[in-house]
Design goal:
Layout: E1 22-26, H1 31-42, E2 46-51, H2 54-67, E3 73-77, H3 83-97, E4 102-105, H4 123-146, E5 149-153, H5 180-205, E6 210-214, H6 223-226, H7 235-247, H8 251-254, H9 256-263, E7 272-275, E8 285-287, H10 297-311
Parallel strand pairs: 1-2, 1-4, 2-3, 4-5, 5-6, 6-7
Antiparallel strand pairs: 7-8
Length: about 325
């Protein structure tokens, strides 16, 4: 195994040759996902892009093929907020991909107004966590056979979550006064709890699958505006996006932690990769810390059980 890059020194040149590698990526139609797909395809990976609007995904892949010579890419329709769509997409992915070397659970919405998913769950938790939990569960046989790595994309916002209200995983549950930012923070906390619990379970079972997390720091993407504008134009969304344009790092830089988590063989399961700069806002990627709540093993186990019940799947490791 090659030595790990010095702290803060990793670049995309460290990715290496990915020919023969298949990467499944959610959220490829803008921002971080577009950058990750381009960079990994540039190094030879076959990209399986999953997104809600198949035409938009196809457009993104057309641009990818235009920018990367001989790029291999295929599109799959996936609506993470609809568990039936997740199950169907997983079947299609397993059949068409053959093997999965890397699964990057990247797609998400941010600070959306209160809405519910197709099955009646709070929309941000349904999209950002539950859909990815179910997708990983459905793909598990292929992931284990391929000795894959699973990358869960979280956010600095996970540190603003002071609790995890598991009622968001109960369809039609009566929630307290809805806080769109609080709900987003909890969904990002859930991403890390899932990542760590998956790592704990594969280690206990002796399975050669690697579970890692990553976050982009403060990166300029459409996420800062699209979630806030879900259901209509939003002055708050426009203001947040304009502030981001002034102070955030680029989407390509924000993608570095995800790309490193997806490709660096020196990283161990359970690692969380983020920017190395001030308060993890920007900079070259390195392993970083997370909140005590994100490292709570009892809460992680409770979330796993609640997610199985909500998704209607038995996610057995081993």
């Amino acid at each position: 195994m090659r030595p790990a890059p010095a702290a803060g020194s990793w670049t995309t040149d460290d990715i290496g040759d990915l020919h023969g590698t298949t990467v499944v990526l959610t959220g490829v139609t803008g921002g971080l996902g577009t950058e990750v797909a381009f960079q990994l395809a540039h190094h030879g990976a076959k990209i399986v892009a999953a997104g809600r609007d198949l035409a938009t995904v196809e457009d993104a892949l057309s641009a990818l093929r235009h920018g990367v010579r001989d790029a291999q890419a295929l599109a799959v329709r996936l609506d993470l907020a609809d568990l039936d769509s997740v199950a169907a997409a997983a079947t299609e992915i397993a059949e068409r991909a053959g093997r999965i070397d890397v699964l990057i659970n990247n797609a998400g919405i941010m600070a959306a107004p209160f809405r519910t998913s197709a099955q009646g769950f709070e929309l941000q938790m349904a999209t950002n966590h539950l859909g990815h939990f179910a997708l990983t569960a459905h793909l598990w046989p292929t992931l284990t056979t391929s000795r894959a790595r699973v990358v869960s994309v979280s956010s600095l916002m996970h540190s603003f979550a002071r609790k995890l209200d598991l009622r968001s995983l109960e369809p039609g549950a009566a929630l307290a006064r809805y806080d769109r930012w609080g709900a987003y923070a909890q969904s990002k906390l859930a991403n890390l709890l899932f990542m760590r619990e998956l790592d704990r379970r594969v280690r206990a079972a002796g399975i050669d699958v690697t579970s890692l997390g990553a976050h982009p720091g403060y990166a300029l993407t459409q996420l800062s505006r699209s979630g806030l504008q879900l259901g209509g134009r939003s002055l708050q969304g426009a203001v947040v996006h304009q502030v981001s344009r002034a102070v955030a790092q680029s989407a390509s830089a924000g993608a570095w932690p995800i790309e490193r988590a997806a490709t660096d063989p020196t990283l161990e399961g359970g690692a969380y990769v983020g920017p190395s700069g001030f308060r993890q806002l920007r900079g070259r990627p390195k392993p970083v810390g997370m909140t005590a709540l994100a490292r709570d093993p009892e809460l992680a186990a409770e979330l796993w059980d609640a997610s199985e019940t909500a998704a209607g799947v038995r996610f057995t490791i081993g």
